[in-house]
Design a protein that fits this description.
217 residues; alpha+beta; two-stranded antiparallel sheet; 57% helix
Length: 217
């Protein structure tokens, strides 16, 4: 059982390390805890009730009961890594990796080492190489998201004129109200290498009634 826990630690740690290198909300330690915890639940399901089964004839063995709750229950942790910025959602891949690592821990706990190693390899290939392939495929069509916190008196056309001044193509604009009558304005622009983003942000910050501005990648 200790061997299985250690294997779960190593495999889930490898996946978590990749997330940690990319500065995601759930990284090395989170993935290890999920993988080891899932492995522990599987071990409990397989071996934790042997004494009761041997002592009582009417006790039935169902090794799938606890793992089924682990698979469905891990969703709350994955949901905590998903962050919504206006119309942009971040953290879906990390949430999926947490859910997959939980399954990985269950598989290791069941003693299916070959399947666990092969799955870990597939996950790493998906996270590392497919991410680079996706960037290559979407090159020139990616976008930046800029969040502007402003007072209600701000005129939206003032912001639009700044983007036009820097030849930035606006793809989407979303406005939401928050506390104290402050507005959150999310502007999605097409990412262009010739646009001076620092100068653009500085120019927007000079507009009256703009309280804060940040660039969300």
């Amino acid at each position: 059982m200790m061997t299985r826990v250690l294997i779960a630690l190593v495999l889930s740690g490898i996946i978590g390390f990749e997330r940690e290198l990319n500065n995601h909300s759930a990284g090395f330690r989170t993935h290890i805890l999920v993988g080891v915890g899932a492995c522990l639940m599987m071990l409990l399901s397989l071996f934790g009730f042997e004494a009761f089964i041997e002592e009582y004839d009417n006790v039935r063995f169902d090794p799938a009961r606890i793992p089924s709750y682990v698979i469905s229950g891990i969703g709350f942790l994955g949901a905590g890594t998903i962050i919504v910025y206006g119309g942009t959602i971040r953290g879906l891949t990390t949430a999926a990796s947490i859910w997959t690592v939980a399954g990985l821990g269950l598989v290791v706990g069941a003693g299916m080492y070959g399947a666990a190693l092969f799955t870990t390899l597939i996950i790493l290939l998906s996270l590392v190489f497919l991410n680079n392939f996706e960037k290559l495929f979407t090159k020139g069509r990616s976008s930046n998201l800029i969040e502007i916190v402003a007072l209600p008196d701000l005129q939206i056309n003032e912001i639009v004129s700044v983007f036009e001044k820097f030849n930035s193509t606006i793809k989407k604009v979303e406005i939401s109200k928050s506390e104290h009558d402050v507005r959150n304005i999310f502007v999605k622009i097409e990412r262009k290498p010739d646009v001076e983003r620092i100068a653009l942000v500085e120019e927007i910050s000079k507009i009256d009634y703009v309280k804060n501005i940040s660039e969300l990648k």
